[in-house]
Amino acid sequence: MIPREIVQPLLGWFYENKRDLPWRREPSAYHVWLSEIMLQQTRVEAVKEYYSRFLDALPEIEDLAACPETRLLKLWEGLGYYNRVRNMQKAARTVVEHYGGALPPDYEQLLELPGIGSYTAGAVASIAFGIPRPAVDGNVLRVIARITENEEDILKQSVKTKTERELAEIMPKNAPGDFNQSLMELGALVCIPNGMAKCGACPLAELCLARKHDRVMELPKKAGKKQRRLEKRTVLLIQDGEDFAIRKREKKGLLAGMYEFPNLEGYKSQEEILEYVRELSCQPVRIQTLTQAKHIFSHVEWEMKGYRVLIEPREKRNTDGLLFVNKKETKGKYPIPAAFAAYRKYLEEDI
DNA sequence: AAGTCGGGGGA
DNA sequence: TCCCCAGACTT
């Protein structure tokens, strides 16, 4: 069980130590929602700039609902997990249609919106609306596992469910948002992963069972992660004068809807590359080897070999799924993910 | 319950 | 290198 005695020390600590974060300035439901979506599996420092830029571009939920997809993905470019922003737009359209443009102040209704799971629903409900619901993220699971000296694998759904149920029991009805944030803030600043915990600065040190038994180092437990698969790819910079070929990725799957340079699975010979370029209705003139590059995703790792292929000027410009974009005009227009950073620079710089 | 989905920063 | 991050969704 989680002791109720954690509540007041946590709140007191939070009011003294909470960070001044952009989304804490004007915590409207939209602002809290956006910050929570951006912060999913993403560090605070990485989110700050994106958050401000996003709200400058789309200050209201209606703006988000009406935004073209490419512009939306461009605003998210580099943050990763691009389904987050696609789901958020779907939800925004639902909010405009069914809720008059304002998020519903109700946990169950929030939970029904795409991209909002139990954590985000709890965070928005408690922080924006003062509704007493827990918001259990990785920080909270770690903090609670240590306080209670829980041996179970915190990645198990059952642990999360139990944590939510027990936190709901002790949730202070007058400050649910602050209480949820205090747990997360403690996890982010003091009760840090691995062997880095700063127990000397912890307001819960005296009642923490892991510390009492000197087991903070070994908790929480997490099941082993499986190995990433390696994928070799051949990336092509097909160049017609100052124009480069890009194309849009599939609507589903990895990097859905983002733009990329034409590329092939596996390492291809120069003959195979030229053949492929011809299939795209291009007439290759010269081929040049570029640098190798690697990009690591969560579950797959790309090892890429790049080639620049100069082609004859094309009559029919944008066919065969290719989009020829001018190096000067395309600046900031097409969302091209970081996986292509090593080759993207040819589009952005004079090389 | 397991797999998919990004990217970066720090040890 | 590996780990982890204010997770959600699909299978």
Automatic annotation (TrEMBL):
InterPro entries the UniProt entry points to: A/G_AdeGlyc_MutY, DNA_glycosylase, Endonuclease-III-like_CS2, HhH-GPD_domain, HhH_base_excis_C, HhH_motif, MIG/MutY, MutY_C
Domain HhH-GPD: 38-189
Reactions that this protein is recorded to catalyse: Hydrolyzes free adenine bases from 7,8-dihydro-8-oxoguanine:adenine mismatched double-stranded DNA, leaving an apurinic site
UniProt EC number: 3.2.2.31
SUPFAM superfamilies: DNA-glycosylase, Nudix
Cofactor-binding details, from the entry: Binds 1 [4Fe-4S] cluster.
Similarity comment: family membership: Belongs to the Nth/MutY family.
Record-given protein name: Adenine DNA glycosylase
Organism: Lactonifactor longoviformis DSM 17459
Taxonomic path: Bacteria, Bacillati, Bacillota, Clostridia, Eubacteriales
